[in-house]
Structure formats: structure tokens, C-alpha cells
Amino acid sequence: MTPPGARRFRDHRYMDTSSSPVAEGRLPFFVYGTLRPGEVNHARLLRGRTARAVPAVLRGALLYDGPGYPYALDAPGTPDGIHGDLIEPLPEAYDDVLAELDRLEDHTPGAPDNLYERLARTVHTAAGPRDAWVYLAGRATARHLRAHGRRIPGGDWKRRS
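The line above is the sequence of Gamma-glutamylcyclotransferase AIG2-like domain-containing protein; the predicted C-alpha cells follow.
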């Protein structure tokens, strides 16, 4: 049973959300591909709209080439991780950034056939763990990538070959 004022995350931890930005769904975003600083979609959608971006790692996940853009897949129990950045939108830009990222990632909350699912995950920064929104491959896409996709060794889109 979930304690009052808490939200159960997929990794079975609880977080008090009664007086935090999570209560409003205002988590930062973990980005790992074309939304990273220096990449094309960061310039298009995020430049000038973020308070900060810090390096981060999503553990227990694998990165696949799209091609053209990457997909993150859950891989619990593996030592692998994905290198990216934790992006914190400016408060006044948050709602617009969220809507634009959902549109870019072909994500509609509650839809069964999303290209990407936006899920809360814990990422790791030099300052410690942080909960963040992460866009992971939708079910059908993940199934296809596991069977036929090309993994990006080292889990870093910027260092792919």
C-alpha cells in the first residue's frame, strides 16, 4: 500500500510528494541523445529555457541507435548505463518544455502505442541521485530493438561511432 502523500516509483521506492515539485509532476528531464547540450534538438527546444544541465547516468539501461536518434531501454540487473544530462527547465518554461518534449518523443500520456514512454527514474549525478523524467522506448519499439537493433557501446550517444 502506498503511504499517503507518496508516489510509488517503478523501482519500488516511495517519495513524499505532498510538498515537492514531484507533486506537480515537475521533475527535471534526463536527456541522452539529440536533446543533450550541443545537439540539434537542444538548440531547437531547450536553449535559453533551462536553469541548468549537469552530467548524469541512468543505470540499468541500454542505449540503441534509432538510426538518427537513440532509444533507451530498461535493462534491470545489468551493470550498463546511459550517459546523458539532467536538464532543469526554468519554472516559467516548464509546461511548454514538457509539451514540446512529449510531442518530439511522440508521447501521449496514457496512450498504448507511444513511440517513447515518459517515466520517472532515478539518475545519478556527481551531487547524488535525482529523480527525473526519462523517455524510454515504448513496448513495441523496445521489443523490435532487442531483437534487431544496434546497441550503442558505452551508452553514450555523443561518443558513438
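Note on the example: The first strand starts at residue 6 and ends at 8. The two ends are 46 Å apart (CA to CA).
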